[in-house]
TrEMBL record:
<dbReference type="GO" id="GO:0008930">
    <property type="term" value="F:methylthioadenosine nucleosidase activity"/>
</dbReference>
<keyword id="KW-0378">Hydrolase</keyword>
<feature type="domain" description="Nucleoside phosphorylase">
    <location>
        <begin position="2"/>
        <end position="224"/>
    </location>
</feature>
<dbReference type="InterPro" id="IPR035994">
    <property type="entry name" value="Nucleoside_phosphorylase_sf"/>
</dbReference>
<protein>
    <recommendedName>
        <fullName>adenosylhomocysteine nucleosidase</fullName>
        <ecNumber>3.2.2.9</ecNumber>
    </recommendedName>
</protein>
<keyword id="KW-0486">Methionine biosynthesis</keyword>
<dbReference type="InterPro" id="IPR010049">
    <property type="entry name" value="MTA_SAH_Nsdase"/>
</dbReference>
<dbReference type="Pfam" id="PF01048">
    <property type="entry name" value="PNP_UDP_1"/>
</dbReference>
<dbReference type="GO" id="GO:0019284">
    <property type="term" value="P:L-methionine salvage from S-adenosylmethionine"/>
</dbReference>
<dbReference type="InterPro" id="IPR000845">
    <property type="entry name" value="Nucleoside_phosphorylase_d"/>
</dbReference>
<dbReference type="GO" id="GO:0009164">
    <property type="term" value="P:nucleoside catabolic process"/>
</dbReference>
<comment type="pathway">
    <text>Amino-acid biosynthesis; L-methionine biosynthesis via salvage pathway; S-methyl-5-thio-alpha-D-ribose 1-phosphate from S-methyl-5'-thioadenosine (hydrolase route): step 1/2.</text>
</comment>
<dbReference type="GO" id="GO:0019509">
    <property type="term" value="P:L-methionine salvage from methylthioadenosine"/>
</dbReference>
<keyword id="KW-0028">Amino-acid biosynthesis</keyword>
<dbReference type="GO" id="GO:0008782">
    <property type="term" value="F:adenosylhomocysteine nucleosidase activity"/>
</dbReference>
<dbReference type="GO" id="GO:0005829">
    <property type="term" value="C:cytosol"/>
</dbReference>
Length: 227
């Protein structure tokens, strides 16, 4: 079963409104919504903020029968070509806030775990094609860097570029990826750029969120048609 995690209520609301035959499933710390979107049975949920919430939600989705996971949300653009509104599709995910270098591990590597988790080729291709139909935005495929930090400085952006070759910064993707990898379940992370992570342009979320929510819905439905 395909599962969709939206970062925010606004994103979930539009998709939730379209969900047919909705059933609410209660899990500790998360409600999962099961139903049909465009005739496809899906699980839908709001993931909450940060890696712990993302890991918890992902584990619940797997327990409820998810076999493929799509995450949609916003991110800070790190790739220099990205502007507010553009879309990043994950090639892979890293945890930029993990530091066990004192014990000889590479920055970002959790001992005993992979240094990065690759997104699924089929989900990536469907996401790129679906995002390409959203007019007026650039779509970039690249590495998603996750950490329990909101990045808001030029130094922070440079660090993510030079150390991790990241395309964008957010707070959940790599946690979803790590849990999916343990279960052998394919995933892809889709992010709309809400800021450039350098503390410059303030984002008017009241204007931006409805646009992000519309894009998330369009990309998810475009993917459903292709999968
Ligand atoms: N989500 C949206 N913008 C972000 C940023 N600059 N850093 C981390 N997560 C984000």
């Amino acid at each position: 079963m395909l599962a969709i995690i939206g970062a925010m209520d606004e994103e979930i609301e539009l998709l939730l409104g379209d969900l047919q035959g909705r059933q609410d499933l209660s899990y500790p710390g998360a409600t999962l919504y099961r139903g049909q979107l465009d005739g496809v049975t899906v699980l839908l949920t709001r993931g909450g903020i940060g890696k712990v919430n993302a890991a918890l939600t992902t584990a619940h989705l797997l327990a409820a029968g998810a076999t493929r996971i799509i995450f949609t949300g916003v991110a800070g653009g790190v790739h220099p070509d990205l502007r507010v509104g553009d879309i990043v599709i994950s090639t892979d995910c890293v945890q930029h806030d993990v530091d066990v270098t004192a014990l000889g591990y590479e920055l970002g590597t959790v001992p005993g775990e992979s240094p990065a988790w690759a997104a699924d080729e089929t989900l990536r291709a469907a996401a790129v094609a679906a995002a390409g139909e959203v007019s007026g935005v650039r779509v970039i495929e690249g590495r998603v860097a996750s950490g329990d930090q909101f990045i808001a400085s030029p130094e922070g952006v440079r660090r993510l570029q030079t150390t991790f070759n990241a395309a964008c910064a957010e707070m959940e993707g790599a946690a979803v990826a790590q849990v999916c990898a343990k279960a052998g379940v394919p995933f892809v992370i889709i992010r709309s750029v809400s800021d450039t992570a350098d503390g410059s342009a303030g984002v008017d979320y009241r204007e931006f969120m409805p646009q992000v929510a519309r894009h998330a819905k369009a990309v998810v439905r475009g993917m459903l048609a292709r999968l």
